[in-house]
Amino acid sequence: MVNVGVMGTGYVGLVHGAVLSSYGFRVTCMDVDEHKIERLNQGFSPIYEPGLEELLQSGIRKGTLTFTTNAQQVVQSSDVLFIAVGTPAKEDGSADLTYVWEVVQQIGKYINGNKVIVSKSTMPVGTSRNIEGYLGNMLKGTPYQAHVASNPEFLRQGKAVSDSLSPSRVVIGADSEEAVQMLKTVYATHLEQDVPFLFTNLETSEMIKYASNSFLAVKISFINELALLSEKVGARIQDIATGMGMDDRISPHFLQAGPGYGGSCFPKDTQAIVDVGRKNGEELYVVRAAIAANEKQKSKMVSKIEEAISFDGTLKGKTIAIWGLTFKPDTDDIRYAPSYDIIQGLLGKGAAVKVYCPQGMKQAARDWPELSGRIQYCGNEAECAQQADAIVLMTEWEQFRGVSWERMARSMRRNVFFDMRNMFAGDIAIRNWFQYYPVGSMEHGYSLREAQ
Ligand SMILES: NC(=O)C1=CN([C@@H]2O[C@H](COP(=O)(O)OP(=O)(O)OC[C@H]3O[C@@H](n4cnc5c(N)ncnc54)[C@H](O)[C@@H]3O)[C@@H](O)[C@H]2O)C=CC1
Ligand SMILES: O=C(O)[C@H]1O[C@H](OP(=O)(O)OP(=O)(O)OC[C@H]2O[C@@H](n3ccc(=O)[nH]c3=O)[C@H](O)[C@@H]2O)[C@H](O)[C@@H](O)[C@@H]1O
């Protein structure tokens, strides 16, 4: 039986480790964060991800899943080591590989046999080759070999467990036959399930990851720009997306207009690939435009709110209720969430801001200290809406479907609803109580009859 080590227990490492343990592999997950490891050893998931805690507890019970802060232990007890640490953006947009190199140095220091080293983290092209070179040097004069592979992760937060159990594809970049064979063993279940596999070299595999995320970001920015135009010319963005999506070559996915993409990956990965382009003398104009359009989208949303509710020419004295802080539903992650920019924009224009989010409030209080004392955290949607002039729905949490529009509206000073996700675009009831502003159609001129 193969022993698996995973270094880094974030959204990717933890889910990956838990899923592999459910296939019966003996998995050790390692992290430098002692508090996280302590919680994990008690069977608690440090992140909110549907289905994860059950999987963790089952692995712990069966004895196939263990957690440690000891790098030596994980390196020496594993046949295959997955690197799943963060690769955040630096100030200049390039990927910060500090954590990756910390891990690689630990592997070089403690390696005690032949190992397969697999990058799951998203790393700029050339990084795996550098890791191969570094470990090769470290192992000179020993009988050991480090077989390096790139195996990018494509899971989505909020669906991380199901995406890991049934991935869209498995991409394996490797020159070494040992690495390929090891990964075929680890992913035997996916091979049996006929999940598509792509074998390629290290560089191509690294690029596939950035290419995929950048392309999705381009798609979102494209539809968002058309949404802004649609609001001016009387077209309806959702119907445009439907019409475009009927063409198989375009596909209907990732054409949902909104306040701009966020999360820990699209913003940083688009910047990182532009940086790689520059360093190699190739300006990536399309990706750069997607980044610029995303920034524009967020500031346009602030202007839209300002124009609609500054009946006396200012946002000063207006209270705005923000529903949803996380960058998408079913996650507690607020990294690069568009809600942050919109809150800052509204505060900058003098509005008072109240917020409610089913999962993101603890994180916001911790990670956005500059907002502390400037926004009011609320216990639920109703408390947030109370005495507000407008509600701005930033994240499409399903629980928002359960609210009573009448109750909300009656508790507010004014009844304006900005639906940044078009969650209620087809809902007649909300229009009985609110002046309703979706993204990408000419509301509130969009009448009840048209909505039917
Ligand atoms: N979050 C996501 O949905 C996806 C992320 N990715 C990529 O996967 C990588 C990891 O992302 P996340 O899981 O979101 O990151 P994360 O920030 O949630 O977790 C990273 C973990 O690595 C740990 N760490 C840092 N230095 C370490 C060291 N020297 N040894 C052991 N552990 C260490 C941190 O304490 C943290 O727990 C990134 O490159 C990201 O771009 C890829 C696909 C999806
Ligand atoms: O590399 C990563 O980390 C991951 O990044 C994204 O996954 P994730 O960030 O979890 O979330 P998405 O569902 O892709 O959404 C990203 C952002 O785009 C926005 N979005 C998405 C789709 C859409 O049509 N419109 C839109 O505005 C979402 O609201 C969110 O803010 C990719 O979808 C994953 O395949 C990839 O593995």
From TrEMBL:
Q: Which Pfam families match?
A: UDPG_MGDP_dh, UDPG_MGDP_dh_C, UDPG_MGDP_dh_N
Please list the residue ranges annotated as the UDP-glucose/GDP-mannose dehydrogenase C-terminal domain. 321-426
Q: Mind listing the UniProt keywords for this protein, alphabetically?
A: NAD, Oxidoreductase
Q: What is its EC number?
A: 1.1.1.22
Per the record, the pathway is: Nucleotide-sugar biosynthesis; UDP-alpha-D-glucuronate biosynthesis; UDP-alpha-D-glucuronate from UDP-alpha-D-glucose: step 1/1
Catalytic activity of the protein = UDP-alpha-D-glucose + 2 NAD(+) + H2O = UDP-alpha-D-glucuronate + 2 NADH + 3 H(+)
- The keyword Oxidoreductase appears for this protein: yes
Q: Does the keyword Oxidoreductase apply?
A: yes
Tell me its family: Belongs to the UDP-glucose/GDP-mannose dehydrogenase family.
Q: What is this protein called?
A: UDP-glucose 6-dehydrogenase
What is the protein's species of origin? Paenibacillus glycanilyticus
